[in-house]
Please model this.
Amino acid sequence: MFKNEEMEINLGPQHPSTHGVLRVKLHLDGETVTKCTPIIGYLHRGVEKICENQTYFQGQVWTDRMDYVASISNNLGWAEGVEKLFGIEVPRRAKYIRTMLTEQNRLASHLLWLATHALDIGAMTVFLYAFREREYLLDLFEAFCGARLTTTAFRIGGLREDLPPGFIKSAQAFQDRFLPCIDEYEELLTENRIWKKRTVGVAKLNAEDCIALGVTGPVLRAAGVPYDIRKAFPNAAYAEMDFEIPTRPEADTYARYLVRLAEMRQSHRIIQQCIEGLPEGPVMAKIPKILRSEVNEVYHPIEAPKGELGYYFVGEKGGTMPYRMHVRAPSFVNLQALSKMTEGRLLADVIAAIGTLDVVLGEIDR
Amino acid sequence: MSFLRTLIPFDIAAGLTVTGRYFGKVFFSANRKKVRTRIKHFTQEYPEVPVNLQPRFRGRLTLLKDEQGEIKCVCCLACEKICPTQVITIEKGKKEGRKMPFPVQYDFEMERCIFCEFCVESCGFDSIILNHQFELAAYNREDFSIGMEGLGQNMFEPSPVGKYSVAED
Model:
């Protein structure tokens, strides 16, 4: 009467908690996952190939559309990568403004992660509170560059324009009201027994597995490895900033939640230092109108909210376009860890594992 | 003690106080309207109340005219070259009584436009801007092809607002 066999089901691509169009093929024995295969490619647009057919100036607009919740981080990687390829030195004020905006974007990205991750697991309230603060940040981006999500914030050699009047004032207003907001999230979640039951000990991935799979970002830091590109290979103005790398030894979903919340506090600190120490001066370096490269190759990593975001450029002799452009997308590499995290665990933990990896499908498929 | 802690959900009560605090701020006050303005509301009643946009907002591409009503564009094709999605097509022409070249045709395919403002940045004559329009949805594909002439939908006038997106009643 009862057959004892494995069942094969699809989670996604239209499932609301797969954060986009991720399809996960699951083999289930009862409610235990025996095999888990993420299937990607539903959002493939060929960004790398498009960028090879566009000039270095034009290519930046495609980076917005990769990780669309952290587009300023993507812009930073592109701009700094090209500047490294051509040896352009950016003015100090531009570096500070870049750092400030990137950290604000990290806050926006982590807030979106917190909102949707809590919503997936079943905590609705945090979703509303986190989106309230994110709204404020998106208004700041709109004031700076005119768009809320697809920002195209930086230019090669600096910034297009200086900060708009009143930007520092509203950024400071956000700084003043943000720390009590993090306390609010903590009050709602950290000690909550339902939250703890769903996250403590779920989707474990220890440090060796993290390093073997190439996982970076908060997932690696929650496994106790204090690796952060901002400290290891400082870019923008991070070398002048005073901040810590939060780590946790537990390597589970709860630890990643705590690491990300601690990271938000550190980002808040960095923004405060940027506002206070903002130097005067120009925001754009003198660069030629047409950039012609030599035969050269460059890899430039930055710390995106999801992990190590690397841009790899190969220049052609006299070419105005990159001969080859490759993106090391953190979500793409981190997604490899999904099967390791979930195999042998329950089906409901797969949702928590996808949420805790903080994947954005626009970046995975590119 | 731990038995009591399991029985009485203090941890959930702590979370509920946060929710209750916000609820109480609005609900138990005599003048609710006053409280609403004090706690800044982020929800905007958008179709009824117009949205506040920042001055740098990037909307639809618009051609500008100078004081004499002449088109400022001189067909240098800088915007056409910089555009990452090739949405601008300009046809050069001549007009009597004007030294500079004159755009006979300035076509803008809005369906592919990604609103990056590179065209405005590249323009050395300040002859184009992105206006503050964002209600650009249309039912027909042809409505996205904007040229210099057209009924209500051309390069000089903003797109008809309220025709598609805001219901009038």
